[in-house]
Design a protein that fits this description.
The complex is a heterodimer of chains A (470) and B (249). With 470 residues, chain A is an alpha/beta fold. In chain A, 53% of the residues lie in helices and 10% in strands. Chain A starts with a helix and ends with a helix. The relative contact order of chain A is 0.12. The chains are: A alpha/beta (470), B alpha/beta (249).
């Protein structure tokens, strides 16, 4: 078992039994569910909107190189810089070099999962740059020294009381009754100072528009606008799969992303930026960089079976519906992207042997498939990941023997009958000896969490031989 | 002359939960169908397919197709195993010589409730079950096969039944095949979440069209001291008095 798999099991045992955590997530997801159900009603035809978004993203992925080149040409023609990074190191090195060359001391960041993926903040901190997360949720988890819990709602796992305690300890702010309005005000004071002292703003991108070279950013707090307009340097760090062909595609994608993400008709701030400040513009950055990150994405693209994974618009809907996510929470996965999409994305991009166990942390309930706004067949992807994980030799000896025996027995009804009969007799003996649930119980994997099964005296096929033709 | 169905009994039902299949036979015969059990069947291959062991799943699937190729109606007391044959064989057998036959057989495999309502055209099987019951719509039956209304129609026609709505009914019970043993702690927590909702429904029994979900839930109830009871749909439909229901738990 890989280190990551052991760690997952260790944390899963703790979280699965944490009823307070279960209640917190249940509360958050219940209000999300209600908002999304209402949000979908704003569409004349939600299914048609999904189909359209799936088609737009499929086209973008099928013609990825062409659209990215088109995007690059638009950006560079306006004096922006585009850097293609094959991996995390190349992306971080580029941003670090820009920061060093311009003597950057302070960076403000708006929410971006790609910068989490490549650990950009740590790379900047290493050269002495102060990095401020400006999305409220990200700001909170940064103060806690934690990665985001969820890709859309990074602090989903925390109550306002926990946040009030955190602000008292880390910001020296005493917020009475953990009042949410006052908590936001306290964070705002700290963040406004950061915005006006930062020389560099780093954002992600929700979409890169090929036909106009625009970067589309969705936020709910306005921090995206401040990040991209106040500091004199703006760096966009994003994955290559964020490209979409046309500006008009945003008419479908923006509302669908917001509805799937939070139930909103569109996020409060929907920002489009396209380059450095021009002579006629009163504000905006003097410098504009876009870092296009691959970091394993072209590996997904090269396999026709997995390329659809790149359609993902990171709305978080598959996390919110996932009954496993609801039990173990975002941090248990040990990945940047948790939940169903992360359990496909991580093994496929960061190593099948190390991360393949995540594809099994799923009951195949298929609920995620029904909510994905770009119609990724997540259950099929999870099954394909499992198949490739086994084919690559990642199987425990006991499981290998078990399946070999099963294959032998299932090939012949007489053998099947015999092996099953022996199994039932052995289990009956275990139960009769009172060993059920103990370390000597071969069914321990079952009985550790459940009462022992009552074994029937006869199998169905035995019953049928005696009674079937009566 | 009665029409004929071939019974497809999933391996774990055969060995661990035979009463589910026996009740299925009882109900099918009661509504006028002859039942045969092709004894050459073993397993549909779902355990191997779902755990990545396609080398184990493939021969199981090929055997299934061979054994059942001559039957017009194949009935299965499990939504999940029905879905394996109908929805997943085409992919598993993509490069097998049995592929076309598998697609054809898949169209003739029916989950038990689906068969009764859509093919046999029966909703009232003459059952009586004087208990409160919540229906758990199991995942593969509901989301992969679109079977939801049929079992509820059958339950509504049962005499003296008190059918209760189940809060958050669409969420998985946590069984998930080998998931239940690979990640027992998560599986049991999901089962416990379902158990809370079953208690909220106020129902004495939870029923479903997948005996595997019920086997798992029953184990979770037992381990946590909950009073709820499980009964497979055919068990409800085969009942004609309170006494027989008790015997089937």
């Amino acid at each position: 078992m890989s280190t990551a798999a052991q760690e997952f099991l260790r944390k899963a045992v703790i979280k699965s039994a944490d009823l307070e955590h279960r209640a917190t997530i249940q509360r958050a997801v219940t209000s999300y569910d209600a908002a999304v159900a209402k949000g979908k009603l704003r569409f004349a035809d939600w299914e048609a909107a999904r189909t359209l978004c799936a088609a737009i993203k499929a086209d973008a992925i099928a013609n990825l190189a062409q659209y990215l080149t088109e995007f690059e040409q638009h950006v560079t023609s306006r004096g922006g810089h585009v850097h293609w990074a094959e991996n995390a190191e190349q992306a971080n090195d580029y941003v670090v070099e820009v920061a060093k060359a311009r003597n950057v001391k302070t960076v403000v960041k708006s929410k971006s999962m790609v910068t989490e993926e490549i650990h950009l903040a740590a790379a900047l901190q290493k050269i002495g740059v102060t990095v401020w997360e400006t999305d409220l949720g990200e700001f909170i988890v940064q103060l806690r020294n934690e990665p985001p819990y969820h890709i859309v709602t990074p602090a989903m796992h925390l109550s306002r009381y926990q946040i009030a305690d955190l602000f008292r300890d880390k910001l020296g702010e005493n917020v009475e009754d953990a009042d949410p309005v006052r908590l936001v005000a306290a964070a705002r004071v700290a963040l406004r100072r950061a915005f006006f002292s930062a020389e560099m703003g780093i954002s992600g991108a929700n979409f890169l528009v090929a036909d106009s070279g625009m970067v589309a950013i969705s936020t709910n707090e306005g921090n995206g606008r401040l990040t991209t307009s106040i500091p004199r340097i703006h760096v966009v760090v994003t994955g290559i799969e964020k490209i979409i062909p046309r500006m008009s595609d945003l008419a479908a994608l923006w509302p669908v992303l917001a509805t799937s993400g939070t139930g909103q008709p569109i996020t409060t701030y929907s920002t489009l930026v396209r380059g450095p400040r021009t002579a006629s513009e009163p504000d905006g950055p003097e410098e504009f960089h876009v870092v296009l990150v691959d970091n394993g994405r072209t590996g997904l693209l090269a396999n026709p079976e997995t390329e659809e994974v790149l359609k993902c618009i990171r709305c978080g809907a598959c996390l919110n519906i996932c009954p496993i996510f609801k039990q173990v929470g975002g941090h248990t996965y040990g990945t940047i992207y948790p939940g169903p999409i992360g359990s496909i994305y991580t093994p496929r991009t960061a190593g099948l042997s190390e991360w393949g166990h995540l594809s099994y942390a799923c009951s195949l309930c298929t609920a995620c498939k029904g909510v994905c706004p770009v119609k990724i067949d997540l259950p099929k992807q999870l099954l394909g990941t499992r198949r490739d994980f086994i084919a690559a030799g990642n199987v425990k000896p006991a499981e290998r023997v078990g399946f070999a025996a099963f294959r032998w027995a299932a090939a012949d009804p007489a053998r099947f009958r015999l092996l099953a009969w022996m199994g039932r007799k052995a289990l009956a003996a275990v139960n009769a000896l009172g060993l059920s649930g103990t370390a000597l119980d071969p069914m321990r994997v079952w009985t550790k969490y459940r009462s022992p099964m009552t074994l029937p005296k006869q199998s169905f096929r035995e019953w049928w031989r005696e009674n079937g033709n009566k | 002359m009665n029409r004929k169905v071939a019974l497809f009994v999933p391996c774990f039902i055969d060995q661990a939960l035979p009463q589910a299949a026996i009740d299925t036979v009882t109900v099918l015969r009661r509504v006028g169908w002859d039942v045969i059990f092709p004894e050459d069947q073993t397993c549909c291959g779902q355990p191997g397919f779902n755990t990545g062991h396609w080398e184990t799943a493939l021969p199981c699937a090929e055997r299934f197709v061979r054994v059942f190729s001559d039957y017009e109606y194949i009935v299965c007391p499990s939504g999940s195993c029905t879905s394996m044959v109908r929805k997943h064989y085409p992919e598993l057998l993509a490069s097998s010589p049995s592929h076309d036959e598998a697609v054809a057989v898949g169209k003739r495999v029916y989950e038990f409730a689906e068969f009764l309502v859509r093919i046999a055209g029966v909703t009232d099987v003459g059952a009586s079950f004087p208990h409160s019951v919540a229906y758990h719509p199991s995942c593969h039956a509901t989301r992969e096969l679109g079977i939801y209304a049929e079992p509820l129609e059958l339950l509504r026609a049962v005499r003296d039944i008190d059918l209760r709505p189940l809060p958050n009914e669409a969420e998985c019970c946590g069984f998930g095949g080998m998931f239940s043993t690979k990640f027992g702690m998560i599986s049991a927590a999901m089962g416990d979440t379902k158990a809370v909702n079953i208690e909220l429904s106020g129902a004495e029994f939870v029923t479903a069209i997948d005996p595997s979900c019920l086997m798992h839930l029953s184990g979770v109830f037992g381990a946590t001291g909950r009073k709820s009871k499980t009964i497979y749909l055919a068990g409800v439909l085969a009942s004609s008095s309170a006494a027989t229901a008790g015997a089937r738990e």
